[in-house]
Amino acid sequence: MRVADDEIDVIVVGAGFAGLAAARALSRVWLRVVVLEARDRVGGRAHTRVVDGGPWVDLGGQWIGPTQREVLALANELEIETFPTFTEGDNLVVAEGKKRRYRGLVPRVSPLALLDFGVARWRLDRMAKEVPLDAPWKAPRAEEWDSTSLGDWLDANLKTKTARRLFEAALETVYAAPARELSLLHALFYVRSGGDLDMLLGTERGAQATRVSGGMQGFAEKAAASLDVRLSCPVKRIEQDEEGVTVSFDAGGARRSLRASEVIVAIPPGLVADVAFAPALPPERAELVARMPMGAVIKHTAIYDRPFWRDDGLSGMVLSDEGPIHVVFDNSLPDAKSGILMGFSEAKNARRLGALTEDERRAEAVACFARYFGDRARRPIAYADHVWEHDPWSGGCYGAFMPPGVWTELGPALREPHGRVHWAGTETATAWSGYVDGAISSGLRAANEIARHRASHARPHSLSARRG
Ligand SMILES: Cc1cc2nc3c(=O)[nH]c(=O)nc-3n(C[C@H](O)[C@H](O)[C@H](O)COP(=O)(O)OP(=O)(O)OC[C@H]3O[C@@H](n4cnc5c(N)ncnc54)[C@H](O)[C@@H]3O)c2cc1C
């Protein structure tokens, strides 16, 4: 629904799931909302591509877990069909040059390594329970945990080389950042945000349980369908005065601007630094965005004429201490007309591979799949990936993270509105921060802030005065 340019109540910057959820919530209470999106598509870090006329693949966010209430509710409301991730058969664990089969969550390694792995998991889960999601800096041991890295904690707490390497490989798939760069407090916040490590790492009953039929792009497009989303409009400046906000953006080669009462900025934290604010952001907010780097992940997707690994009773799932791909899933579509292997390179591996050409990345990924699944994996009929780190409208993925010192020094600035400017985006979420679910709840929270603000200031179009 097109909104007249001189009648806008709220401008939302960014048409990822956070911005779309905020805009949908505000439109429901009859506010007139325009969404300005830099890309020529909606969905942000969720993006589906049809590969060479063949199957579709999700190059960004793809899974939904059973406790992700907001994304499940939105999928339900929009009648989005889903299907379970393929898990039948044996998983593979590759450790210290040996390849073994296993079932369930526990990889088959030596009893000592297994014990080591299990104790470390239990400790992290127990510590995570002490982190308040809305204020991690208030955790009883916040200072101690924020002054060290997850890597230092792993060094001190894992005694066997196998457990150390496998645990780090699994955790890098969760965080998309090297353990040495992550604050331990942030690592614990993230675990608590998703529930526990079983939930974050799990497939059948965990965060990797379910996929969206047709891919996440269609989901985002359905969420955007009733909204006034203006594509290819990168926002450059946000200026506030007594009466409202002027948002300036580029469109069709010219600088344009729109006025509104309030703005929701729903873009990755690092990209906020590319937008000029007048008055300037408070120093804590400006420093926060400068000190929240993005993670790095590449999903390497190889398409085969059929899922041949299933013939050998394999699920397609791999956990490996060898790089560059540490974790693999069977990402075939439900009809299994073709076989799709999707492997993650993360952190340092993703940064290195991101600097190569797509042909070079394909060669490395396929060689890795062949080590896990044999020579047939050397001959995919197609390949796709996306280097999110080099994508100017994401700057990395899955999301931004906190290095040591940031939560305790600057955490309170994360969601604090700057006058008429409100913050959304998955990084500002409490539950499922870093995920699509967190993006949606952050958008709903920012929309609620505006609702409360308008109600207390009794402006025209206040939420209590429904139009129509
Ligand atoms: C490889 C990968 C795998 C992932 N896997 C999963 C998964 O399986 N499950 C899951 O739940 N999550 C997953 N995620 C994370 C999930 O995709 C994100 O958490 C979520 O999509 C973030 O949504 P958002 O709206 O907060 O931000 P974004 O999706 O980044 O949306 C921000 C939007 O703002 C736009 N923008 C940026 N700057 C400007 C500007 N100046 N002006 C206007 N617009 C601007 C961007 O183009 C973008 O569309 C994955 C992400 C990646 C990249």
List keywords for this structure.
about 475 residues, alpha/beta, FAD/NAD(P)-binding domain, Polyamine Oxidase, Chain A, domain 2, Guanine Nucleotide Dissociation Inhibitor, domain 1, 3 domains, seven-stranded mixed sheet, 15 helices, 21 strands, globular, binds flavin-adenine dinucleotide
CATH architecture descriptor name of the largest domain: 3-Layer(bba) Sandwich
CATH class of the largest domain: Alpha Beta
Across the major sheet, the strand order is 8-7-17-18-19-16-20
Q: In angstroms, what separates the terminal alpha carbons? A: 15 Å
Work out the number of β strands: 21
CATH fold description of the largest domain:
FAD/NAD(P)-binding domain
- How many independent structural domains? 3
Hetero ligands: flavin-adenine dinucleotide
| Nearest-integer average pLDDT | 94
Proportion of helical residues: 25-40%
- The global form is globular
Oligomer: single chain
Low-confidence stretches: 459-468
Rg result: 22 Å
Question: Would you tell me the structural class of the helices and strands?
Answer: alpha/beta
CATH superfamily of the largest domain: FAD/NAD(P)-binding domain
Beta strand %: 15-25%
Main β-sheet: number of strands, strand sense, barrel status? Answer: 7 strands, mixed
